Structures are given as C-alpha cells and as structure tokens.
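Quick entry, no commentary yet.
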Amino acid sequence: MGHPFVKDRTESTRLATPWVPGQVESKLKVRYAVSLLIAVCLSMTAIVIGEGWNARQYHLRGSEVEMSNLAQTLASQAQASIKQADTLLFAVVDRLENDGMEPAKIPRLQRLLHAQRGELAQIHGLFVFDEEGRWLANSNNAVLANANNSDREYFIYHRDHPDRGPHIGPSIRSRSTGEWVMTVSRRINHADGRFAGVVAASIYLNHFLDLYNSIDMGSNGVVNLIADDATIVVRRPFNEADIGTSVAKGPLFTQLLPKGNSGTAIVKSYVDGVERVVGFRRVEGYPLIVFAALDKAEVLASWRQESMLSAGIVSLLLGFLGVLGYRLIRVMKQQNHIQNELLEAQEKLIEVNHSLKLLALEDALTGLSNRRQFDLFILAEMGRARRTHTSLALLMIDVDHFKSFNDHYGHLAGDECLRKISTIITDNIQRPGDLAARFGGEEFTVVLPGTDYVGAFLVAEKIRRAVQQTDIKHSGSPEGLVTVSLGVCAYNQTAQSQPEDLIGAADKALYVAKASGRNMSVIAN
C-alpha cells in the first residue's frame, strides 16, 4: 500500500498593497489545503481502521489454524500412546485365552507384564483380573490383600458387553498407588465365549499433562482430552475437580461435533465461561476428542497493542505527515515479520503432521508397509486395474508353525524371524510399483500390479524357496526349519468388486496350502 503525502504551497501577497481577490484566493487555497489534509487524514484513518480489523481477523484466523494443527498433533500423540498400550493388551488376551489362566502360569505372566510395562514410559501398570474381579497378576508386583476390581467401570462394561474391542474407561485413582490414571481394557473369554475376566492397562494422566504443560498456551489457554460420553478425561490446567465433569451441554457437543470430527471455532467455554479460539479433533480409532483453545483476549492482546500504536500514529498525522510514512512502513514491516513467523510456524507444524502420517503407514517391527497402507494401496490398484483393464495379483503369506517357534525360541527370536522373512520378501519383488506389507502377526501380503496369476505364482515360489534356503532352524516344524505357505490370487473384475473379495480369495488359497501340508504355493480357483 502506498502512503500519500501532501505538499501545501501558498502564495504571499504584499501587505503594502492589499488586494481582496488575492486574499480570497489565498484563503481558498488554505481551505483547499485544510480540506485536503482533512481528507487525507480521514482516508488514512479509514485505512488504518480497515487494516486494524483485518489484522484482528488475521490474528484470530492464525490462532484457529494453530489450534487445528495442535489438535491434530495431540490427537496423533494420544492415538499412538493408547495404541501402544492396547497392542500389549491384545497380546496378553491372546496369550491367556490360548495358554490358560492356571495358577502355575501366573508367576511367568507377572514377569511378562513387568517387562512389558518397562518398555513404555506412559504405562502406570498392567493388570489381569479373573471373572470375579480378583487380581491374578499385575506389572507392579503390588500385593493387596483381598483386592477386587469388580466395582470398576471397565470391569462392569466388559462383563456386560461381549464385544472384544478395547474400552477406554474414565480417569480414576489407582488403588495400588493412588495416582490418577486412564484405563484401557479388553475382555478375556473362556473357550466357549463366556466372560473370563479383564486385562487392563492404566496410563498416567501425567503422561498427557506433561506434554500439554510444555506447550505455550498463554496464561488462560486450555487443552482437554474428552471422552465420547462428554466427560473430561484430563484437562490443562489440571484440577482434580474437573476430571469426570460432563460438558455434554457445552458448545463442543452441541454445536461443533455434529458438524464434523474436526474443526475450529470461537466459542465460550462451558467450564469457566471464557471465550476462546478452539481447535478440536477426534482421536482416530478411539472414543476420545482432543480440544485445544487459546484465550481470545490473549490472542488479541498483541493486536490491541498494534491498534493503539496505529491510533497514536494517526493522531500524529495531523501535524507530522512526513513522519507518518516512516512510522507506517515500520508498522507494516512489523506486521510482515509477524506474518512470516506465523507462516513458518504453520509450515513446521504441517511438516511434523506429514512425518507423523508417514510413520503411521509403516510397520515398526519389519519396516514394511502396515495394514493401513496396504488397504489404501489395494483399493487404489483395484480401481486402476478396473479402469485400464490391466491385471493385478495378490499374495498372502503365512509363516508355518510360528506360534510353536515363538513358544520354543522366545518372542525376540520370533521378531528377528519376521524381520528376516520381510527382507526376503522385499528382495524378491524388484518392481517399484509392487507393495509388500505386514498384514498382521506372522502374516504378510504382496500386491503385484500388472501381473497375472502365472507371474504371481512364480514370485510366490521364489519367496517360498528363498525362505526355505535361508535355513532358519525350527525344531517344532516337520521340515526342521522355518517355511512359509502362500495363497495366490489374480484379480477378477467380475467376481471381486471389493478389496475384501480379493483378499478373501487369496486367503482361501493360503488355507488350502496350509491344509495340504504347508510349505507350498496354491493358486486360488
């Protein structure tokens, strides 16, 4: 924006020879100059007011973007923390349901829970309760006489609900240590499907609070982790009285969440009545919402200071138009500098979010693509094959007798075995367009675009022979070494409309391979 300057030039007349028309002309020039000055001042005032309003909107919008990015980052962090705990619970449930819960096995289970807890700093404890709520094992080696957790919300939930998914309970005080924790739990079943107990992980609330407190949210900013039932799980700033408080009648649940799973707004807090700039996002895969908010008054504090400065400059314009340009340029430079800093901060947050998304598509153990990446890739490739009428093939790979391998050699050896097999798979698919992924547990999958069932069978056999030739010893296998079975399926556009159809066909072929003696590749009919 340019800055207008006014130059007033008046002609003086000789006092000795008064000339009325000349005096009138001079007065008119003065009036014109005054009018021009007033017009310039009014224009500058209008411009400054308009820029002040735009700066106000810019500050608010910038804060909304910051809160949206912060909510997304914190939601990813919460999802990762809970997912780590839930993965441990899934493994413990699988172990208990397969190996049993006899008293002779409890000491080993207790040692396992203690070792697993030590791997994750956010875990307060891992606990196993029988169908009556009695303590069977815990990672903290806590001994509580007649301890019983049948009155806990998560125990009652699993006892009354047959679903096998994870359950996020309300924040509670630990009976063993007295600390505030959030619970993640899973149901244990008997072989006939009856309720057999609960395995639970407690996560320190301080794990979340330490992160939230490390973020500069101003003196009156808040970060909330809220359950789907509208109760507060943890809130920064921390106040024990806030835990469990319902915000169902607050704007988050009445206005914002009905419109979408994420977003930004300027609303008045239901808890303390403060108007804030908020960003919110649901935690993927779990019934939680992250809610981050800055005090609107604090967001606009710098804007008010800038506006007062501009007002002072405008008042000086009446007598110091020459200084105005310099001051306004300085203000604009300050605003540009602030804008650049905000944009740089935004770009850094976007880069961090992008990195988190990339990490979310890779299997941590093997380095292959994970199930999520596989689902996205197979859906895209089926669409491409359908449009271009090209071929597409899928391999399903399962490690033979892997459970007995784990039981005999231990989980660390099992993990190393999976890493070796993943390397073999990667070495035997050379095209850039192919994808190898860990499907789950000891099961892998390979997507081969532009390949029919013959080519896919040749790749499958290369992988099978390479695994066999690696000579990984396995005393529990009839072969005496680790082998794999493979199911091969080519995409049929008529019979397979969804990825599940193609996966199901390859899985059936894999089942036939295992039922027929293992260590072989079978093509789907």
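second:
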Amino acid sequence: MLQRLIIKNYAIIDHLEVDFSGNLNVITGETGAGKSILLGALSMILGERADPGVLFDKTGKCVIEGFFKVKKSQVASFFERHELDLEEQLIIRREISASGKSRAFVNDTPVNISQLSELAACLVDLHQQFDTLELGNSDFQREVIDALVNKPAILQQYNNVYQQYLQVQKKYKQLVDDRDQANKELDYNKFLLDELLEADFSPNEVEDLDNELQLLTHAEEIKNSLNRVYFQLKEDEQPLLQQLKQLQSSLQNIAAFHKDMPAVAERMLSAYLELQDIAGDVERINDQVQYDAQRIELVNDRMALGYRLFKKHGVQTTDELLAIKDALSVKVDSVLNLDEQLASLEREQAQLHELLLKDAAVITEARQEQSAPFELKVNALLAQVGMPNARLKVDIVQGELNPYGQDTIEFLFDANKSNQFAPVGKVASGGELSRLMLCIKSLVAQSVALPTLIFDEIDTGISGEAARQVGVILKDLARAHQIICITHQPQIAGKADAHYFVYKDAKAEKVTTSVRLLSMEERIDKIAQMLSGERPTAAALENAREMVR
C-alpha cells in the first residue's frame, strides 16, 4: 500500500506530504483546488512521461517520492528480473529538472521509465475519469473473467504451448517458402551440379594442367638444352667433369706445399661431385620429358573446360570451383530432404494443436462457470448503486485459437430491462460506465490481490442513495484493499477512514495547493458544507454526523 506521498515543486504545489491510511482514503476540495494535481504527481512515480512545464519553481527541480509497504511475493519477480534489492519498504523517487531531464529511482537505484511502469502495475490500479472506456475493450473484459477464474497456471501453460505452436507454424511457413523457391531453382542447380560432377576436377587440377602444358609444348627445346648440357658435362671430346677431375688431382698433388691448398682442393672436389650429381639429374629429367601430341590435345581440352567453368561461375581457381560444387550438392540434397522436414513439422503442429484444444476447452469451461455468477453479482451491485433496471451479460463465443484460448468475450449491456443487449461500450453512458467499472473492480478484488486502488471522481453523474451505495461498496472494498478516492459526494466522504481536504493557500504572493488530514469535527463540517453550502445549517451538520457515524 501507499504509505506516504511527498511532492516538491510540482504544478502549484510547493511542498506537500501526505500519509495515507491502509483502508478508505477520501480526498475532497473545491473544484480547481488541486485534487487531480495530486494524482498527476502520483502518476509521475508510476511511469508517466515527464513535462518540465509542471515545475512550480523553474529554477529548481521537481521531486516526487512514494513510500510503499509491500508484500515481497507481490513484487519479488520484478526485483529478481532486474537485479534490484528488495526491502520491506519500497521507495520510488522521480526527479524532473528544468531542462526536462527526468530520472527515476527504486530504493535509490536508477531505473528506466519502462521498468518504473512495470513495477507500478504491481502497486497501484489508477482509475481515472476516462478509464471507463476500457470497459469496451475485449482484452479488459477477458482479463476480468480470467481474474475471477483465478487459475493463472493453466493460462500460462496454454500460452507457453501456444507460443511453441506459433514458432512451429512460422518455421513450417518459412520451410514451405524455401521449398517452393528451391523447387524453382532445383532443375537449374541439378544441371550445374551434374556439369561439375561430370567434369570431375581434382583439387588444383587446372593449375597443374597449365604447368604440364608449358612443359609439353616446350619439350623439344627442353630436351635440346638438356642434351647439350649433359653432352658437355660427360660426353664431349674433353668432358667438363673429366677436366675438373684432372684439375682437382693437380691441386691435391701440391696440397702439401701450401697451408691453403688442401681447402682449395677440397672445394674443387665438391664442385666436381656437385656437377656429377647435376649431370645425373639432367639425364633423368631428359628421359622424363617426352613430346606427346595426343597428351597436349587432351590437356588443352581439359583446361578449356576448366576455364569455361571458371568464367561461368565467376571464380579464379579449381578449389573455388570445387567449393561451388559442394554448395550445389548441399542445396540439391536439402531440397530432397525438405519434404521429410515438412512432414515432421506437420506432425508437431498437429500434436500442439490437439494439446491447445484440450487446454482451451478447460479454460472455456472455467470461464463459462464464472460468467453466470459474475452476471448475477454485477447486476445486484448495479441495483445497489441506483441502476435497478440495468443488466450485464457475458457473451462467450468459441472461435479460432489465440494466445488466451479460443474464446471471444464481450460484455453486453441493457440499461432498461428491454432484453436488447448491445456491446457495453456502445450503449452505456459515462455515469453508467463509471458505476459499472466500480462494481466489476469490487468483484475482481475479492478474487485476486489487486494493488492499491485509486478512483478519480468515480461518482460522476450520481447523487443521493446511489452515491451512498457507491460509498458502501468502496467501504467494503477497503476492508481488504487500500482505496484512495477523489470525490464530490458527501455520502462517499462520510464512509472514509481518513478524510483529506485539498485547498489553495497564498504564500509569498504565490498560490499553492495544500492538503490536510481532517479531524472528526472538521470532517463533519466539510461534509455539511458539501451538503448545504459554505455556511451549513444545523440540519446539514446533523446529517453529516449521521453520515460519519
């Protein structure tokens, strides 16, 4: 519950502190005194957007603080999700600077506005004058019935399966699109793959063939050069190797006469041995090099095929061509496997659909069980608040599966016992919607733990006995919930556990809004003024005492 609200430098509020009771808190005051400004300030710590134009003093900053007493179970998931420290008392602070910069804090830890709004939904239900429009919203109507059903586990279970179902549907549709597109390309891809398979190139083959062709086309020139080298090394009239051998022997003979000669003779021997090896390699290479016209033609044809495929596929090397072949193979194989994957997804869809129908039937049955008692209770409360001829009917129609089951829920309304029911948002007046919303929220509050309920002029369009009955409902609702209600009706003010009076005060030539908690005698006086005017009569004072009692 909201224990304390501190407002500094907001609109026409300079500094204000209000301590609320845990039951029915009523706020009254003259029109324009600033009652709704209190809710405007409160909305700032509930995640509303900030406007620097609300600053009372443009040279300072606006600070709004709310002190809440919370059950840890009520907000535990939020604090765990956002890794915040959870304490028994929760302090929310909002700061707005003159430049328009806004900051928010939860227990002195900075949070963003979306996080603040998420937390606020766990703490406060703010019903303002135009929130009755929500009654015509199908999501709100479904949420009301589901709150009365009060089986969140099965709804969550259904929603989890439904999300899986959507994912499988999405995957199936994407796979169908992929298959259709792939089928369009399949014949062409198979043609390209078959062409590459028939070519059957090995890694680096085209590059190796290019080297081989260079050898084959220059075979005669190569052999002539090799023969000449071999001949001069070993078979000439004075072969070079023989001359080196003789020179080496001459050096060896004089090696003993000079200290450097043995090394020179050794080097000459090394040169001789190296050239002897070269002669052997020249002979071996010469034997290997053969001019082969048929092989040249074969290599040319193979290379022509390779370069044609290079150009066709926009590549430069054999390995790149082989990579394309592998990719085409994967594409063709995947198309052939798509039908099997689609069949598997169809089976999964069918299983999930069957499970959804089963859970949806349980949800529908639970909603139908609650709808009749809900109608009776709402209609009884409508009579209590001055609408004896009004009737509400819950229309539940089964349709397509959706995230919340397979039901379309609509509240139908008949204001005059005409048995001509129509959607509530189209036929109910503003005053009727306001009282209907109060009746619905009071019933929902009995089933689930609603946060603090705030009503801004819920009594619009009513007076007399109807207003008194609204006060009775609020009083009853306040036994288990904190209620904060702005009202102009003395019948409602008389039911308050704490009565706050909002008034304007002139300070330092500035008009500011102030709030004070009324004593018993002050309450009686203010309620009497609400009944008969600025100077209440003795009868009005007595009537006020009766209302307070």
